[in-house]
Amino acid sequence: MIDKIFLGLGSNKGDRLKNLQNSIREIAQNDKCKIIKCSSVYESKPFGNKDQDNFYNCVIEIETLYGVLDLYYNLRTIEVKLGREEIYDKWSPREIDIDILFYNNLIYKSEILTVPHKDIMNRDFVLVPLVEIANDFIHPILNIKLSEIDLSLIGKYIIRKLNDRLI
Fold this sequence. Notes:
The structure is a single chain. The chain is α+β, with helices and mostly antiparallel strands. It has a single domain, classed as 7,8-Dihydro-6-hydroxymethylpterin-pyrophosphokinase HPPK (Alpha-Beta Plaits, 2-Layer Sandwich). The chain has three helices and eight strands; from the N terminus they run βαβββαβββαβ. It has helices spanning about 15-30, 70-80, 125-135, and strands at about 5-10, 35-40, 40-45, 55-65, 95-105, 110, 115, 160. Strands 1, 2, 3, 4, 5 and 8 form a six-stranded antiparallel sheet that branches. A two-stranded antiparallel sheet has the order 6-7. A hairpin with a 4-residue loop joins strand 6 (about 110) and strand 7 (about 115). The radius of gyration is 15 Å and the shape is globular.
């Protein structure tokens, strides 16, 4: 089977674009991961705690030899390496945030990880870049193509699409 693993990346602390670039570089340098596609970068208003700087967000598609939990722990290691502090406030500013959005058609829930990511349907800054690179991907719970999701029903957080490309 060909992997269809999608990661959401976000940064609103420091050099946001460089933080996204560095996280993609770290993932690509891992011999168990391969970057397949990368969306455009979108600037968005913060979700949750609104008293902080805007985010830069993108979505990447990868292939990996990691299982879902090993991938999760590897991504946490990358976040810490790139300066993310262990923050107890869920909505705090961060140098980098890397979320597993989809891991093939896996439906998984534990205390530390839920796949598909539970807030995909609430965030245009996740759905718009996802549709950009994977419009035919079928949401494993909703059983519809991403391109069939009515974006008008989703909260509006995107401010603009940047011209910068990450790969």
